[in-house]
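Hey, can you fold this?
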Amino acid sequence: MAVNYVIEAEIVDINSDTPQSEDVFLVDTNVWYWMTYPNATSYVPSQLADYPNYLNNALGANSTIHHSTLSLAELAHVIEKTEREIYERTSGRIFPKEYRHNIPTERTRVVSEITAAWGQVTTLAAALDITVDSGAATSSLNRLSTEKVDGYDLLILETMQKHGVVKIITDDGDYSNVPGLIVFTANTNVIEAARQQGKLLTR
């Protein structure tokens, strides 16, 4: 079933946009995954090129690039999952905790991949920190009734709001329903919905 996006953000198609020196971006975890992890996979092969190309162009234009420190948890999770799937191709099915605890050589490789990827993130982008205290949790919880995002995204949005950042580079269509954001994406479903709803921004 197709996702029926109600577009509340402004949407920019990264395949027809040129980053500018005055841009201040937060880069979402999925983009860091494709940018920094050599074994990254994707359901849409163009994602493996589109996002790294745009991010490299932004870096070349001297745009300000940020990462959320919260992305480490999500990035570590998806890298470990991908490494387990690679292992399963030759060794058969294994449950996540068995993979994590029972095969030391695999664990060493997973840690190495995560460390290398996060090292690139912190080299390429300045951190946006947030304290996940009771106030941030309450504010995040309040978003659930108006913004259709997952738990990671709730806290990413809190981080962006705290630091006054409104531009995000992401393939995640959930951000498209957050008012006040400018979403830079190659997600064709989001771009088409934005075009139909008059929310596609051409700079």
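Oh, and this one too while you're at it.
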Amino acid sequence: MTFTRRTFVQLSLGSVLTATADRLIAQGVASHTAKPIARPAPSGRPFNARFVDVAAAAGLNAPTIYGGVESKKYILEATGCGCAFFDYDNDGWMDIFLLSGTRLEGAPPDATNRLYRNNRDGTFTDVTEKA
């Protein structure tokens, strides 16, 4: 049996909604007399993940601008901009499109969206101007 992308997405979303339906239905409006449920004890299992910032080494060095530098006044300033991973040049490797925003006092000169082409070696080249 073959699946189209649309069928796959519909089945995926359907399974997610089915799995979370019980939790969504169970969520209701609490009365003012409801007591908060105590947080369960931590599992005690170690968290052995280690995160390393490799953006500069990979060639992703343009700043992402959103909100104030020192503080954020509004929720829109704190949520960030976004990114997309897609193959824009159809070479079979995921490229990166990074969105950049602005600041309330005005956009800095380097505030622009950036498109990075995957070099297939763990690095990326900024092809914004070329694209």
